[in-house]
Write a structure and sequence with these properties.
- By secondary structure, the chain is an alpha+beta fold.
- It has nine helices and eight strands.
- The protein has helices spanning about 45-50, 55, 60-65, 70-100, 130-135, 160-165, 180-185, 255-265, 280-290; strands spanning about 105-110, 115, 125, 140, 195-200, 205, 210-215, 235.
- The chain has a four-stranded antiparallel β-sheet with strand order 5-6-7-8, with helices on one face. A two-stranded antiparallel ribbon has the order 1-4.
- A hairpin with a 5-residue loop joins β2 and β3 (about 125).
C-alpha cells in the first residue's frame, strides 16, 4: 500500500475521504445497530412526497421508498455506515502505529456536512442550513497533548492553518481560516460568528452560540418540503429553540447584529477562478444530488 512506501523518518500527509455515511445507505457494520431513540420514525409516504427530483429519479431511492413503510430501516443503515467508517479509521490508525507512525502522527477527523433524517421535512440529504446540516464534529489528535472537549465555535476552514502551524509550514495570504492550536489548548476563545453557505450560495447562515440567522439570497425549489425564497430570513433563538423550529419575526438587537455580520461576510468574499468541470465531476455531483 501507499503507507508501506513511507519511510519511518519521512514526513507525510494523507487525505482520506470516506463517503460511506451517505445515501444510498447499505448496512456495512457486522454489529447489530439500533436507531438513536430521539430520532422519530416517519412514514415513507411522507418521504416520497417531500423527495426532490434527483431522489425520485434515483433507482436506489425508488427501491427504498417502495421497500419500506417507515424511515427506521434507513436510519439503521445510515448509523451502521457511520459505525463502519469509524471502524475503518481505527484500522488505518492501527496500521500506521504498526509501521512506527503512532507517536508522531496527528489526526483530524471531521465531516463536510450532516444528514437530514426527517427534520424540517428534509430526508436523507443535506438541504438547508439548520444545525443538523452544519453542526459537524471535529476531532483533533496531536501526539503528547492532553485530550480535551471543547465547545467553542470554529469552522472547517480552520483545519488547514492548524495543520500548517503544527508542522511549522508557512501560511499563504489571504487566508480566511485561523489556527485552532491556542483554542484547543484553552489559551484562546473560538469565533464569535461562524458562516455557512448552501446551493451555490443561494443561502447563507450566520451562527453564534445563542442564535442563528438563515438568509435566502435566491429562490429555489429543489426540496418540495423546504422552499428557498429570495428575501426570506429565518432567525432563531437557540437558547429557547435549539432545534430551530419557530423563526422569530420581530426586530431585535441580536438579529440586526447577525445581519450586519452577513453583510460583512458577503462584501469580503474572495473570488477564485474556477477550472472547467470534467465529465466525471459532473456525473459524481449528479449521483450525490448536487445537480439535477
Amino acid at each position: 500500500s501507499l503507507i508501506d512506501k513511507v519511510k519511518s523518518d519521512e514526513k507525510f500527509f494523507i487525505w482520506v475521504h470516506l463517503v460511506d455515511p451517505h445515501a444510498p445507505y447499505h448496512a456495512q457494520s457486522p454489529h447489530h445497530v439500533e436507531p438513536i431513540e430521539k430520532l422519530d420514525s416517519k412514514p415513507m409516504k411522507l418521504v416520497r412526497k417531500m423527495a426532490p427530483n434527483f431522489q425520485k429519479k434515483n433507482k436506489w431511492f425508488q427501491w427504498a421508498m417502495n421497500k419500506f413503510t417507515t424511515t427506521r430501516p434507513l436510519v439503521q443503515r445510515y448509523i451502521s455506515e457511520i459505525q463502519r467508517a469509524d471502524e475503518g479509521l481505527g484500522e488505518l490508525m492501527n496500521e500506521l502505529t504498526k509501521r512506527g507512525h503512532g507517536d508522531d502522527t496527528a489526526y483530524f477527523i471531521t465531516s463536510d456536512h450532516g444528514e437530514n433524517l426527517g427534520e424540517h421535512n428534509l430526508f436523507f440529504h443535506h438541504g438547508g442550513l439548520y444545525k443538523e446540516t452544519v453542526h459537524v464534529p471535529l476531532v483533533m489528535y496531536v501526539p503528547n497533548q492532553n485530550p480535551t472537549i471543547n465547545s467553542e465555535l470554529v469552522q472547517t476552514i480552520d483545519i488547514a492553518p492548524t495543520i500548517l502551524e503544527l508542522t511549522n509550514t508557512p501560511m499563504w495570504s489571504p487566508m480566511r481560516g485561523q489556527s485552532l492550536v491556542d483554542i484547543a489548548n484553552g489559551r484562546a476563545l473560538g469565533r464569535s460568528f461562524v458562516f455557512s453557505e448552501h446551493m451555490n450560495a443561494d443561502m447563507l447562515a450566520v451562527r453564534t452560540k445563542d442564535s442563528s440567522l438563515i438568509i435566502h439570497r435566491k429562490s429555489g425549489s429543489q426540496f418540495p418540503g423546504y422552499k428557498i425564497n429570495k428575501g426570506r430570513v429565518e432567525f432563531y433563538n437557540l437558547r429557547q429553540d435549539p432545534n430551530e423550529q419557530t423563526p422569530l419575526t420581530r426586530p431585535s438587537t441580536q438579529k440586526a447584529r447577525l445581519q450586519a455580520q452577513a453583510k460583512i461576510f458577503l462584501s469580503s468574499s474572495y473570488a477564485y477562478k474556477a477550472r472547467p468541470a470534467y465529465a466525471q465531476d459532473l456525473e459524481s455531483l449528479r449521483v450525490l444530488g448536487y445537480l439535477e
